[in-house]
Write a structure and sequence with these properties.
The protein has about 270 residues and is mainly beta. It folds into two domains: about 220 residues, Immunoglobulin-like (Sandwich), CATH 2.60.40; about 50 residues, no CATH class. The strands form six sheets. A seven-stranded mixed β-sheet has the order 7-6-5-9-13-11-12. A hairpin with a 2-residue loop joins strand 11 and strand 12. It is elongated, with a radius of gyration of 22 Å. The two termini are about 15 Å apart.
C-alpha cells in the first residue's frame, strides 16, 4: 500500500452517512480513483455535498474491504434487515470490492442472510447466488447448507461477497422468512474508505452526509502542505521540492527528489522516499 496523489481525479457519489464512500464514476474530463490511485493505495480526498454546506477532507483507502453490520428490526409490518443501524431499500456496490455482512448481533440468530438474483430469493421462486460468496461461522469457512443449519448456534456469522465484474443486481433475503431483504446494485466504480478525517464541517470529524450527489476528488490538504517559513504538523511533499528555511515539523513524508538546505527540527517521524 502506498500514498498516491494524482491530478484530474474526480468522481461523483450518492453515499450518505459516515460509511465508506461508493464512487459512481468519473466526472466529465476527469479520471477515476481506481485508475489513477490504484486499488489498495491511499490518497488525500475531498468530498463536497454542493448546496448542503457539507464537506470533508481526509486520507482515504481505495477499494478497501467494506463491512456491513446487519441487525434485524421490526419497524412495523414485519422484520427487516437493517444495515449499520438504518433501514435500507438499496445499496450500491463496487466491482472487485469485498463486502462482509456481519451478523453477530443476536437479533440475526434465526435469520440467515443469503443472496439471490431474484427479489426475496427462494420465497419468490429464486435460487441462492454464490458467485464470489464465502460463508463463515465462528471464523471457519463452511458450506452453504452448514451455514444455514449452524447459523443460530454460532457466535460469529459472516457472509463475504467479492463483487464480480458485470455482476447482476442482487437481493438479500432471509432463508427462513420472506420480506426481509434489500437490493444490491453493482454500478459503482470503486470505493474510498474514510481512513482519517483531517478537516470537515463536523468539527473535523466524519460528516454524516445527507442525500444528494457529491463531488469526490484528490486534493492536498492545507494541514499536509509545507512551504518556506511554515511550522508544519504532519505533511506531504511530492515531486521536486526544495526546503530552504528553518522550521519545526511533527511528522511527515518527503517524496522527492527533495533538497533540504536549512535546519529542520523533527519532533515525530519523518519518512523520506
Amino acid at each position: 500500500m502506498a500514498l498516491v496523489i494524482n491530478d484530474r481525479v474526480k468522481e461523483t457519489s450518492t453515499t450518505t452517512g459516515t460509511s465508506t464512500i461508493t464512487l459512481s464514476g468519473a466526472s466529465s474530463d476527469f479520471e477515476t480513483f481506481v485508475s489513477q490511485v490504484g486499488a489498495g493505495n491511499t490518497t488525500f480526498y475531498s468530498m463536497v455535498n454542493t448546496g448542503q454546506s457539507e464537506f470533508e477532507v481526509g486520507l482515504g483507502t481505495v477499494n478497501a474491504g467494506v463491512t456491513l453490520t446487519i441487525t434485524v428490526v421490526d419497524p412495523g409490518g414485519g422484520n427487516k434487515y437493517y444495515v449499520d443501524g438504518s433501514l435500507q431499500t438499496s445499496i450500491n456496490l463496487a466491482e472487485g470490492v469485498v463486502y462482509t455482512f456481519n451478523m453477530d448481533n443476536a437479533s440475526n440468530a434465526s435469520h440467515p442472510l443469503k443472496l439471490s438474483t431474484t427479489s426475496d430469493g427462494t420465497h419468490n421462486s429464486g435460487t441462492s447466488y454464490n458467485t464470489g460468496v464465502v460463508y463463515k461461522l465462528d471464523g471457519s469457512v463452511v458450506t452453504e447448507s452448514a451455514y444455514v443449519s449452524g447459523f443460530a448456534a454460532a457466535t460469529t456469522r459472516r457472509l463475504e461477497l467479492t463483487v464480480a465484474a458485470a455482476a447482476p443486481t442482487l437481493y438479500t433475503y432471509c432463508s427462513s422468512h420472506p420480506g426481509m431483504g434489500f437490493e444490491l446494485t453493482t454500478t459503482g466504480s470503486g470505493t474510498l474508505a474514510r481512513t482519517t478525517v483531517i478537516s470537515s464541517t463536523n468539527s473535523d470529524s466524519a460528516v454524516n452526509f445527507s442525500s444528494g450527489t457529491k463531488d469526490v476528488f484528490c486534493t492536498v490538504p492545507a494541514k499536509k502542505f509545507v512551504g518556506p517559513g511554515m511550522d508544519a504538523t504532519s505533511f506531504v511533499v511530492t515531486h521536486s521540492s526544495t526546503i530552504s528555511e528553518e522550521q519545526t515539523m511533527d511528522s511527515g513524508v518527503l517524496a522527492g527528489p527533495v533538497t533540504i538546505t536549512a535546519t529542520q527540527t523533527i519532533t515525530g517521524t519523518l519518512v523520506i522516499v
